[in-house]
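Subject: Sanity check before I submit

Could someone independently write out the C-alpha cells for this chain? I want to compare against mine line by line before I put it in a report. The sequence has 350 residues.
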Amino acid sequence: MSWRDNLIKIEPYVAGEQPNKTDFIKLNANENPYPPAPSVIKAIEKFKGGSLKKYPDADAKPLAAAIAEREGLKRENVFVGNGSDDVLALCFRAFFNSDKPVIYPDITYSFYPVWCDMLRIPYETIPVDEDFGINAADYKRENGGVVIANPNAPTSIGRGLDFIREILDANPDSVVIVDEAYVDFGGTSAIPLLAEYENLVVTQTFSKSRSMAGMRIGCAFANTELISALYAAKDSYNSYPLDSVAIEAGVASIEDEEYFRATLEKVIATRDRLTAELRGMGFTLPDSCTNFVFAEHPKYSAKDICEFLKTRDIYVRYFKKQRIDNRLRITVGTDEEIDALISALKDYIK
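---
Independent answer below. Compare away.
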C-alpha cells in the first residue's frame, strides 16, 4: 500500500474564476461592489499592531455581544466564526452525527456536499421544482438534519417564514439550519422563530451585505445548548478562530447601521434595473432576493455568453451542472459595471 492510498479523495468546492489581471469587471463571486463602512476602515487604521502579540478573545465576545444587541438576543445565543463557511462547517460537525441522511435541495450552495463528504455525513438531495422552488412538503421525511439556504443560491429565490415554519414543524427531532448569507438583500430572516423552535440554527455572514468578504466574519444564532455545542466543536480544533482586527472591524460595522442600509438600497436598486434590462433582452430569471441574478436566454448558450463576456473583461459565473447549465449567475456590481455588462450583452445578441 502506498501513502497515496491514504490521501483524501473528495471533490472540493470550486469558487468563481479569478483571472490573473487587475483591470476587469468581476461579477462572479457575489461580492459587494461597495467598500465597507468608513467606521470599519477607521477601526482597522486605528488598530494597535502591538496588541497582536496576544491571542484574541477566544469567543469574540465583543463582536458576539454587538451582534446580539442588534438582533435583540443574548450574547449566549450568538456564535462567531471565520466567515459563514467556517460556521456552517462547524454546524455540520456539531449537529449532524446521526446515521440518518442530512437532506437539502439538489440545487443549492455547492459546499454542503463537500462538508458531508469530508465529515462522512450521509446525505440526500431533494430536487427543486422546474421553477427552482423548494417544496416544504418534500422535507417531511426521516432525516438526520435539514439545511435550507434562504434565499437560495444560485437560484436567488427567497421564501417567507411560513415556509420555514412548515419545515420546522415537520422536523422536531432534527436540527434545521437556515443559511441566510443573502437575507439582507430582500429575504426574510428566521431569527424571530428562534424563540419558538429550539432545534433552529440561523447562519449569516459579513461577506455580502457588509462588504467584508476579505475579513472573513460569519455568525450563527440558536439556543444556548446548540451554541454550546458549536463552541465545543470549535474548541476541539481551533480555540481562536477570529483575529483581533476582525473583531474590532466587525463591531464597527454593526454600529454603522446607516451606511449598511444605504449600501443595501444601492445594490437592490441596481439589481432591479439589471433584472428589467435582462428581461428586455429576452432573458428569463426569477425575482431575486439576493445580490445576484440567475438568468437564462432561450436562444443563446450560457457558456457561449460567458466566454464572450470574458473577451470584454467581464466575468460572470457559469455552472457546468445538470439542470442549470444554461444559466448564468451574475453578481450585482456598481451602476458603471452593470452598464458595461448590459452594453456587452446587447452587442452579443445583435
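---
OP: Matches mine. For the report I'm noting this point. The chain has a mean pLDDT of 96.
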